[in-house]
Amino acid sequence: MKGAVLYGPRDIRFEERDAPRIIAPTDAILRLSATCICGSDLWPYRGISPVAEPSPMGHEYCGIVEEVGKAVTSIRPGQFVIGSFATSDNTCPHCRYGYQSSCVHREFMSGAQAPVLRVPHADGTLVATPELPPAEMIPNLLAVSDVLGTGWFAAVAANVQPGKTAVVVGDGAVGLLGVLAARQLGAQRVIAMSRHPARQQLAREFGATDIVTERGDEGVARIKELTKGVGADAVLECVGTQESMMQAIHATRPGGSVGYVGVPHGVELRGEELFYTHVRLHGGPAPVRRFLPDLIGLVWSGKINPGKVFDLTLPLDQVAEGYRAMDERRAIKTLLRP
Amino acid sequence: MKGAVLYGPRDIRFEERDAPRIIAPTDAILRLSATCICGSDLWPYRGISPVAEPSPMGHEYCGIVEEVGKAVTSIRPGQFVIGSFATSDNTCPHCRYGYQSSCVHREFMSGAQAPVLRVPHADGTLVATPELPPAEMIPNLLAVSDVLGTGWFAAVAANVQPGKTAVVVGDGAVGLLGVLAARQLGAQRVIAMSRHPARQQLAREFGATDIVTERGDEGVARIKELTKGVGADAVLECVGTQESMMQAIHATRPGGSVGYVGVPHGVELRGEELFYTHVRLHGGPAPVRRFLPDLIGLVWSGKINPGKVFDLTLPLDQVAEGYRAMDERRAIKTLLRP
């Protein structure tokens, strides 16, 4: 089969790879219905995270089970399933506390920008839909796999509560779905920070009540202004840079919470500065598995349409153009059809 | 009157100062029944925090109201009152959220190592006892003013829950009262990290179930061992150094919480490292005012005896010896009698 492999900065190739097969008895093999490119794939693509050797790319996926290992009991061939970018046994103590992305058996998935994928710990990682979904629902289900699950965790980690004010830093796909999540979790006011008209528009569709175009200290001042000088109850940090993290922390009221899901790159927090902000900080790789059943339910019932973040759809063999479009911010997120 | 003034590293003087008087109509003047030396006073005493000019010291206090300004309505002369090291109006939005130590009118108290003290925003800062306390209760009430309130906030910020496991990093007075707080809040297991026999003993009296003498990575390994490899649900960081903070973070399970109340000195947190720990972080200057009514109630009813942390009592004019004893770790905490 052919899949996407990153060789170095901006050098993504669609090339022949060995087809995955069952290795451990807890594995499953999926034929993917759709896959996509993640904002986090751009870190190595841009050379910001080094690439030591050619790396099969992709960790967002949904599709039909082709084969399962002998130990798999809850997933069977023919089912349509969705999994997280982090595998989990869903039984270890960390999983039972809802932190499946810190599972003792965690592996970070890769190689999902391909037609076929091996998923370890299938029983603990994959969740099946009630029946085979209609084609038009597939982008929504694919979004659940990472980008919605991550935006949702940002909102949960930021302790979004009904009636409260949430701010979302970052207008990438995760940030936009953070807006959707904050709204679904009952925030009365959701302030999206974005200076990009198409993303502002989508933020509004997902439930943003206000848009702030300023950044950094000016952005913080604007949030203070909009909250009568108090600061926001909940701030979702969906970027991962020093500037975005400090913007999130300073936009939060004392006792409020920052939920951060953008993988931090070069972020350093000064203990004393953090101390006097009185902010709560929680984040990390999203435990998407915790949210999968509920989020699949919301998609299945038509209550949410997170697949709207895919504003470019390409056949898998044009994966390189998909990366370019996201790198140049021509596309929010690229869906790939194997 | 005479009070304690810090001139520079290890240069504390007991010298004549102007007696405080009402300045603003919201002030109160207290005649102090007892005052004490805080672990945080040792930072400037040791020259770690610079002292720009001679500074009146002390921010923990309780005593009898002598006079109140014209705008004070809830406190009256003759009452025995306790206040926090941070003044608060107790009506601003931050106060209403329970973060009185981020009050828009916050002032950090100083000059309490003296017989008489001016307290701004008396109505929002001071809480009166039901009646005048017996002499033997005064150390317990003095402890509420900062060291118990701060240990209590560490436990609350670390999200200590009934039946869970708490770890306390730091065996100073705040850490020891963090042990008491964690136990009062229902922790089933409270692991105190201390290598000092007298402090271990007091930790046990306050409810510690286990003592760990190892520090740093070895301390973390021991906590992991005691929690079946999982890590603690709640960790109270009561020191404020890079080592203690990292020890606290790494002793916590994914999804568990670190409550940090040691004023950070030179602490830097790497965003990416924090991200993958999945730890919750909350702390800052303790909003003691939030807890004052409940903590005074616990002392008044005899349920807790936090004043046990005072293992040295001196007349106020021997304040310099009080500092020396704490600096040399001969005393946990020095109570001073004006």
What report would you give on this structure?
The structure is a homodimer of 338-residue chains. Chain A is an alpha/beta fold and 338 residues long. In chain A, 30% of the residues lie in helices and 25% in strands. The first copy, chain A, has helices at residues 42-45, 93-96, 122-125, 138-157, 173-184, 197-205, 216-226, 242-251, 271-277, 288-300, 319-327; strands at residues 2-8, 11-16, 28-36, 55-56, 61-68, 80-83, 116-119, 126-128, 165-169, 189-193, 210-212, 232-237, 252-260, 268-270, 280-283, 312-315, 334-337. In chain A, the strands form three sheets. In chain A, strands 3, 5, 6, 7, 8, 16 and 17 form a seven-stranded mixed β-sheet that branches. Chain A has a six-stranded parallel β-sheet with strand order 11-10-9-12-13-15, with helices on both faces. Chain A has a three-stranded antiparallel β-sheet with strand order 2-1-4, with helices on one face. The first copy, chain A, is globular and about 60 Å long. The relative contact order of chain A is 0.16. Strand 14 of chain A pairs antiparallel with strand 14 (268-270) of chain B, so a sheet runs across the interface.
